[in-house]
Write a structure and sequence with these properties.
There is one protein chain. By secondary structure, the protein is of the alpha+beta class. The protein has one domain: Ribbon-helix-helix fold, CATH 1.10.3990. The chain contains six helices and two strands; from the N terminus they run ααββαααα. It has a two-stranded antiparallel ribbon with strand order 1-2. The longest helix is centred in the middle third of the chain and has 16 residues. The C terminus is likely disordered. This is Ribbon-helix-helix domain-containing protein. InterPro entries: RHH_dom, RHH_sf.
Length: 95
């Protein structure tokens, strides 16, 4: 069973830092590549760039709940919600 997870391409769980602006503030976000790939897909589906999508998401969270304690965790769970809704969860785990 663990071979499905252990055998995945190490590039998927390697981390990448991207610099961007969230509501005019320059910041950097470090995430595993698999999460960046999913965020890029979500942004593309929304018809916007990834930085624009992240800034929009951050603005909406600020409006609904205030400053998130851990924005990178929010991004990871956003990816999980997206994958669950699109039925890709099992397919992604098998890659």
């Amino acid at each position: 069973m663990c071979q499905v997870f252990a055998g995945q391409d190490p590039a998927r769980y390697a981390s990448t830092t991207r610099r961007l602006r969230l509501n005019g503030q320059s910041t950097s976000i470090r995430l595993e590549n698999a999460f960046w790939d999913t965020l890029d897909e979500i942004a593309r589906n929304q018809g916007m760039s990834t930085p624009h999508f992240l800034s929009t998401l951050h603005s909406e969270v600020l409006e609904l709940r205030g400053e998130p304690e851990n924005f990178t965790s929010l991004l990871r769970t956003t990816c999980l919600i997206h994958l669950g809704r699109s039925g890709q969860t099992a397919a992604v785990a098998a890659e």
